[in-house]
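Quick start: read one record
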Amino acid sequence: MTGLDILAKRCAKQAIAALLMAAISLLTASTVCAERVKDITTVKGIRENQLVGYGLVVGLNGSGDKKGPMLQSMVNMLYRMGVSIKSTDITAKNVAAVMVTAALPAFPKVGMKVDANVSAIGDAKSLQGGTLVMTPLQGPDNKVYALAQGSVSIGGFTAAQSGASVTKNFPTVGLITSGASVEKEFGFDLAHAEDITFNLKNSDFTTASNIRNAINGFLGGNYATTPDPSSVKVKIPPKYTNRVVELVNQLESLDANTDNRAKVIVNERTGTVIIGENVKLHPVAIAHGDLTIEVKFPSPQMEPGAVVQPAAAIDIKDKNVALTKITGSTLSEIVAALNKLGATPRDLIAILQSLKASGSLTADLEII
């Protein structure tokens, strides 16, 4: 073997080793649970604002209101346009009274377009083909922030013939895409703020501390503090004065490890069971046949020197019921073990409630 062959073989071994190390690094990195600050927090004061207004949808093909507030609204609208008419003279069913809602984004600007949702409030059968007449949209302070107008698009329809009718979805609810125009601006002076606050979507002491550490590490100083588990307050560093938007952009791109409380959520009506990743189960025996699970607690009075018994135990009354032992495990093992029992989702609810009562399930059990 020549010197060149030995050198080539040595280089090949080094390359394989480098690839293995890179693969191990990737696998290790994938086990770290980190989320962007942007995905787990919101910036205090920056949110959508809800608007609401009352209006009329005209141009309906006989599917509008027969009675109700629409009649008086029609009289008032025509009177403002110089037409005097009595409500008893209105017989056509081409108009419907509606409520209009919209959500303004943070820092809205005059002329910005947002979607408007239109919902009938009378006895109209359908808003199909109708046009919303210009409707002022007000905020909680009764000030007008936007005007809505345009053709209503609905996601359903109603068809009737010879006494039979077919209705799909909700023809009394519609949407006007970009149908509301912002007429008034509001907000606060973010560019010259002295501090900003990130509010956590899910309050947690550990997650708040991790976000604080990530921000301080990025800024190179103790600029971030955690006044409570729901927020992280950041003092604007001198080099970011009047550059708050740039600072928020950089901080929101940081990664922070998240830690949520172990929780099991059960929807009793639908039988849906959601089990969090951190849910663990202490050793326990479960009897599943007719779901006759009985949880017994030891007597609170124990003599000195007596052998300490488990905090709780599961006893089985029915001799014909099978007994299966489940040892301490993680989510996947819990699900596999319960599936092995042949439990349905509704059976799981009873099992989880008993496990929680016995102290074997170390997680919050929330039933909705």
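Residues 115 and 178 are 4 Å apart (CA to CA).
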